[in-house]
Amino acid sequence: MPPLYHPPVKRSVEIAGHKTSISLEPVFWDMLRDAAEEEGVPINALVARIDAERIRADTPPGLASAIRVWLVTRT
Predict the structure, then answer these.
(1) Is the pLDDT of residue 10 over 70?
(2) Smallest Cα–Cα separation from 28: which of 60, 75, 71?
(3) Distances (CA, A) of 23 to 39, 69, 75
(4) What is the pLDDT confidence band of residue 2, given thresholds at 50, 70 and 90?
(5) Quick check: 10 and 22 in contact, CB under 8 A?
(6) How far is 47 from 56, CA to CA, in rounded Å?
(7) The pLDDT of residue 16
(8) What DSSP assignment string belongs to 38-51?
(9) 59 Cβ partners below 8 Å, 6+ apart?
(10) What's the pLDDT tens digit per position in 16-66?
(11) Can you name the residues that pair with 11 across neighbouring β-strands?
(12) What's the confidence (pLDDT) of residue 1?
């Protein structure tokens, strides 16, 4: 496991056929992978769902921020 305090790592994901890069700390990449596995979906599909939810917000945050918030508030 990488150190707890580690700079963000940039990775490419595909949302609705478009590639984009997201920078998240390794602990969030691990959490995102685990969440996708628990839900039985690819990471890209989970990120696309989070993206769709954030776009509907009154004041949409950036995608990386939305992913972090989604991960720490999911039940």
Answers:
(1) yes
(2) 71
(3) 22, 14, 24
(4) low
(5) yes
(6) 14
(7) 85
(8) HHTS-HHHHHHHHH
(9) none
(10) 899 999 999 999 999 999 999 999 999 999 999 999 999 999 999 999 999
(11) 22
(12) 59
Backbone angles phi, psi at 51, to 5 degrees: -60, -45
Three-class SS state of 18: strand
**H-helix segments, the chain:** 26-39, 43-55, 63-73
Q: Give the CB-side neighbour count of residue 10, counting CA atoms within 13 A.
A: 3
CA–CA dist 7, 45 (Å, integer):
25
What does pTM read for this prediction? 0.90
DSSP state of 2: -
**Environment class of 50 (CB within 10 Å of its CB; exposed 0-12, middle 13-18, buried 19+):** buried
SS3 17: coil
